[in-house]
Write a sequence for this structure.
């Protein structure tokens, strides 16, 4: 399998290189040459298989320069013991033929683990093939969930160091504590004075600073990125859509070949793009339903064909979806444009220059055939949490609640009652303050851990160990820096001269 770039289809590289580089030199994203279909005769074995075997089946189609032993070993390392549920990504059936795909049983209680438990192993294997012997320095700017998941994934990974920058005032107390208490000998965590954009800009600047790159090379090191545009993060995400479909058949909810809809709470467009790729491989997904919070740039795009980031930015109770530039959308545009990189360049230039672009009528039609979009405000989010808990005893986090709201609205508006898989992206205890607010009562005076307890009292759901055990822990990392000090922090940490 070869990979090309969304902005230059002359490029042709293998998977190891695509994963190692993360992003193409001209700024494009790597995409596989094709999406190999699952053959009819393969389904029966997949339905019988466990999650790891399903992962091997998907990964081996795309990572053809990896041996099957390498893929099996990466899969075992990722999903062998780190997840608290036997099924890794279990499905929970609710009324109305809605099925919750729970992606938060990993070590950090958010869906980023599904890919970030795998990425370090893919990177190590890729580095071995490229065999330049340089130490990998992973730099991450995070709004919360990615940072912790990347730290857990890369901790004590031989031949790598990971440095995470988070907005000091921009993450929840629990998210901050998750990161600042991180264990491992190769990790560094820094609060940045500013918001997520400041942290992100600082990291991008370090990535492209020629002086810094020279210093690194002199010291036998190279930067790498663990953010969601890396192909090595996307490919493990295709697996759980295939897996959910197999489970629905195994549980006799559907018959092989029946259609399902997928509803995905969306920020950077990585998760829902993986669903689209699964569909291209033959998983019978009808509608891909893209759910946004009040930052509803994608809803407008799907409805009108115009992407316009010139709009107010809202901080919401689903912070991992507070995003106005969805990086992975570029990969969808590439497919919608018939893999025409000139068209992608035109659109991306317009986005940089004017903050907006409009796709051609053909692209818009193709988009609307596959996708539906909807969004949900803060009251709707709280209501979805409350109603679903009252009716079904099922507790959702705020991001998942956005998807649930959009799912119900979509069904009301269209009458499409196809069985729906709603993607559940975080354990509700990861956002205790916002989830608790959905219920009646005065919780104002409680600290974060008292809120966890209160939520436990209300729901009876177990507090996951990785969150409960943070109570009383002393932060190991306390450094706070300004945006302009980030590169100095990197040099000090790595001993660069
Ligand atoms: C990252 C994240 C999302 C958004 O996923 P994308 O792949 O960026 O669209 C949704 N929910 C949670 C809890 C997340 O951490």
């Amino acid at each position: 399998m070869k990979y090309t770039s969304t902005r230059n289809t002359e490029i042709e590289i293998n998977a190891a290189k695509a994963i190692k580089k993360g992003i193409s030199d001209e700024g494009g994203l790597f995409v596989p040459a094709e999406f190999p279909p699952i053959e009819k005769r393969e389904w029966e074995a997949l339905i019988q298989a466990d999650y790891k075997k399903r992962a091997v089946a998907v990964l081996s189609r795309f990572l053809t320069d990896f041996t099957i032993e390498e893929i099996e070993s990466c899969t075992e390392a990722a999903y062998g013991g780190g997840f608290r549920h036997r099924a890794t990504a279990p499905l929970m059936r609710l009324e109305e033929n809605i099925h919750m795909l729970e992606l938060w049983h990993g070590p950090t209680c958010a869906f980023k683990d599904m890919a970030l438990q795998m990425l370090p192993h893919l990177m190590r294997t890729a580095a071995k093939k490229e065999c330049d012997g340089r130490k990998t320095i992973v730099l991450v700017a995070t709004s919360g969930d990615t940072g912790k998941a990347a730290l857990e994934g890369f901790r004590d990974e031989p031949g790598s160091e990971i440095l995470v920058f988070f907005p000091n005032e921009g993450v929840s107390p629990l998210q901050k504590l998750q990161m600042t208490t991180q264990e491992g000998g190769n990790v560094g965590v820094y609060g940045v004075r500013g918001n997520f954009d400041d942290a992100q800009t600082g990291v991008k600047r370090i990535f492209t600073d020629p002086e810094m790159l020279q210093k690194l090379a002199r010291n036998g090191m190279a930067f790498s990125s663990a953010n969601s545009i890396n192909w090595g993060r996307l490919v493990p995400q295709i697996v759980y859509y295939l897996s959910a479909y197999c489970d629905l058949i195994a549980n006799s909810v559907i018959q092989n070949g029946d259609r399902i809809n997928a509803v995905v709470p969306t920020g950077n467009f990585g998760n829902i793009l993986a669903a689209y790729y699964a569909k291209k491989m033959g998983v019978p997904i009808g509608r891909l339903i893209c759910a946004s919070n009040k930052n509803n740039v994608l809803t407008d795009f799907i409805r009108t064909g115009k992407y316009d980031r010139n709009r107010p930015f809202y901080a919401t109770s689903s912070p991992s979806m507070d995003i106005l530039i969805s990086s992975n959308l570029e990969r969808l545009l590439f497919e919608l444009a018939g893999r025409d990189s000139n068209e992608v360049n035109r659109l991306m230039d317009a986005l940089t220059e004017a903050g907006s672009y409009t796709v051609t009528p053909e692209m818009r039609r193709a988009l609307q055939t596959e996708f539906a979009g909807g969004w949900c405000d803060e009251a709707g989010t709280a209501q979805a949490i409350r109603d679903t808990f009252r009716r079904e005893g099922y507790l959702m986090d705020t991001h998942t609640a956005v998807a649930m709201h959009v799912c119900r609205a979509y069904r009301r508006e269209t009458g499409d009652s196809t069985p729906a898989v709603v993607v559940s992206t975080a354990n509700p205890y990861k956002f205790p303050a916002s989830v608790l607010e959905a219920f009646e009562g005065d919780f104002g005076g409680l600290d974060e851990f008292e809120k966890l307890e209160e939520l436990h009292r209300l729901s009876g759901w177990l507090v996951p160990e990785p969150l409960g055990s943070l109570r009383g822990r002393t932060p190991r990392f306390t450094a706070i820096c300004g945006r302009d000090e980030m590169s100095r922090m990197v040099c000090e940490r790595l001993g660069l001269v």
Summary: Residues 110-112, 145, 228, 265-271, 320-321, 399, 425-426 surround pyridoxal-5'-phosphate (CB under 6 Å). The mean pLDDT is 94. DSSP finds 22 helices and 16 strands in the chain.
